[in-house]
User: Which sequence fits this backbone?
């Protein structure tokens, strides 16, 4: 099997040792960084598909994402040198009052795995901080996460604050266990995704059109 395919396989399996070894070897051999990145992305795309189809579960996704992250650490300096930038930048965070971050982190990892740059603001993020970060990083997308029914109003507050800040063209994507499409519509978000793999599809749908 060609090295690039082997790298894709290693990511799919979450085999970070093989992933790191292959990435390092290919860098040494002078392989184009965008080809290596493509192989990593293919691996995470497959993980996303299987996660969505319930053929893979949260711990396995986290292990695959960690393997990808480690290879990216090796690859990043070359990507920067070659001027290869993520296609889009997203800001993500869990809304004020809410400390749950496992789902948000998964979305963040899947976005990164799809070559979307992510600025992760963490948990318990006040509404104004989302608006500031979108401006500072020129983000095209913002992801808001909430896991508590009591913090759903915080998601509405964040959406209103971002809209009131008049940031041109930023798309607001919401998610989290108690969130529904109906709630997303009610608060004026641009999109809702029920899981991390769908969050990738949604970004591609609304930005690649
Ligand atoms: C783990 C957990 C905790 C951990 C959080 C650790 C952490 N670092 O996140 C701890 C122990 C800290 C915790 C605390 C509390 N928790 Co809690 N917690 C959970 C638990 C068991 C799992 C949540 C989880 O991680 N799920 C796994 C992830 C992968 O799923 P997910 O978050 O839904 O994310 C997926 C999608 O929703 C979506 N998604 C998520 N975010 C986003 C964002 C975007 C932009 C998009 C597009 C998609 C998206 O994609 C994700 C991946 O596919 C749930 C119960 C449950 N089974 O859901 C209760 C639960 C959420 N907690 C609950 C409660 C009540 C609390 C506490 C108030 C308890 C207390 N009395 O102190 C505190 C609140 C603390 C706070 N202020 O936030 C309740 C909420 C009830 C409600 N309806 O509001 C739940 C449902 C438990 C229950 N049945 O009562 N909790």
Assistant:
């Amino acid at each position: 099997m060609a090295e690039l395919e082997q790298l894709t396989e290693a990511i799919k399996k979450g085999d970070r040792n093989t992933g790191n070894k292959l990435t390092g070897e290919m860098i040494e051999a002078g392989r184009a960084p965008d080809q290596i990145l493509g192989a990593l992305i293919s691996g995470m795309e497959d993980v996303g598909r299987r996660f969505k189809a319930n053929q893979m579960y949260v711990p396995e996704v986290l292990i695959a994402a960690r393997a990808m992250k480690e290879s990216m650490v090796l690859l990043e300096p070359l990507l920067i040198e070659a001027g290869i930038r993520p296609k889009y930048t997203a800001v993500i965070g869990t809304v004020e009052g809410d400390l749950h971050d496992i789902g948000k982190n998964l979305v963040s990892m899947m976005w990164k795995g799809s070559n979307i740059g992510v600025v992760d603001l963490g948990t318990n993020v006040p509404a104004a901080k989302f608006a500031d970060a979108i401006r500072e990083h020129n983000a095209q997308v913002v992801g808001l996460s909430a896991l508590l029914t009591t913090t759903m109003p915080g998601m509405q507050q964040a959406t209103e604050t971002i809209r009131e800040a008049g940031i041109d063209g930023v798309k607001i994507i919401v998610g989290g266990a108690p969130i529904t499409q109906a709630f997303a519509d009610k608060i004026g978000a641009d999109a809702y995704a029920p899981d991390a793999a769908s969050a990738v599809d949604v970004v591609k749908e609304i930005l690649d059109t």
Notes: Strands lie at 88-94, 116-120, 141-145, 171-175, 191-192.
